[in-house]
Amino acid sequence: MLKKINKYSYITVPRSENHGTRTYDVHGYNLPSVTTILSRTKDQKFLKDWKAKVGEKKAEEIKNLSSKRGTSMHKYLEHYVLGKGYEDLTELGQQTKKMANKVIEVGMTPVEGYYGSEITLYYPGLYAGTTDLVCMHNDMETIVDFKQSNRPKKREWIDDYFLQSAAYAMAHDHVHDSKIRQCVIMICTPDLYFQEYRIQDDELRHWKHRFLVRLDMFYNLKNN
């Protein structure tokens, strides 16, 4: 269980899914999710090539299993942060429990306390999303994103992870007048290989600027 730091006040807002588009109803505005923005503006060539290689059916099976595994691992991690008990006795649940424990054992050690877990962040009028954790990590206010992966990731493969967390940091700073200095991506594979990637200060600003380019692209596509 982590210490709760009562510094920021977060809101809970309804969200909806419609044909692969996730939106958040924030103060009467229907805002697109960060993941939707990134998905709609992403170069799909790699994904299309991969589907052609493994086949549509196999690709869908892999995608669904990865999604279920990620959801289950996140549940364990959320309950750990909140200090609540949770157990999933299915085969998948027992697998993701080990993955979550690896993240806790290695990745969460520098976390001194948390501000919010699974919270909605939004930039008024532009976008919204749900971040896994806002916390103090090595004496820095930090956005943390938990990821499961079927295999280890190279840094150059995870641009969207950096863009996503940078968008959350920008939204948090704008709405809560904070100074998020760091984003940390914690990744675990089913065979318990843990990886961590960080972006800080100047590099974080770089990824914020890159997200704004994608955001502009999204609204241009939408308006046209």
Estimate what percentage of residues fall within beta strands: 25-35%
Which residue ranges are poorly predicted, with pLDDT under 50 across at least 5 consecutive positions? Answer: none
Count of domains? 1
Strand order of the largest sheet: 4-5-6-7-8
CATH class: Alpha Beta
Radius of gyration: 17 Å
- Provide the CATH architecture: Alpha-Beta Complex
Tell me the helix content: 40-55%
- The total count of strands amounts to 8
Question: What spatial form do the alpha-carbon principal axes imply?
Answer: globular
Q: Which fold name fills CATH's third level, the topology?
A: Lambda Exonuclease, Chain A
Describe the 3D structure.
By secondary structure, this protein is α+β, with helices and mostly antiparallel strands. It has one domain (30-223): Lambda Exonuclease, Chain A. It has helices spanning 34-40, 45-54, 56-82, 91-107, 159-176, 201-223, and strands at residues 15-18, 21-26, 29-32, 111-123, 127-137, 140-148, 182-188, 194-200. The strands form two sheets. The protein has a five-stranded mixed beta sheet with strand order 4-5-6-7-8, sandwiched between helices. A three-stranded antiparallel beta sheet has the order 1-2-3. Helix 2 (45-54) packs across helix 3 (56-82), helix 3 crosses helix 4 (91-107) and helix 5 crosses helix 6. It starts with 14 loop residues before the first strand and ends with a helix. The mean pLDDT is 91.
